[in-house]
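# nightly structure sweep
# worker-07 picked up a monomer target from the shared queue
# config: single-sequence mode, recycle default, output format = structure tokens
# input follows
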Amino acid sequence: MALTLTQADSFQRVSGAMVGADVNALRNFASYIQGTLSTAVSAAFNDATKQIPNIQWVGNDATQFVSAWNQMLAQITSSLNGTFESLETSIKAQAQQQETASA
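# output follows
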């Protein structure tokens, strides 16, 4: 994708090379992480969880597995959501810093 003049406004020239970032692209990526990526990961976990009842597995091992799965899934989901939020915040802060520096 070629840079338009509007996108290039956030870039600075140092020794003839462009440095900086397209702040709109950064903000879009931050939204993608928190929205699309987060939703896709949750959907994948939900799909996997829906497959468990289809397994022909009865007994104590099955019960323990389902319990462990649900506990693990809750921990992973919470951790990932926190990570996605942190990434979104960090990327948006970088965009704001870039915009401020280029003003």
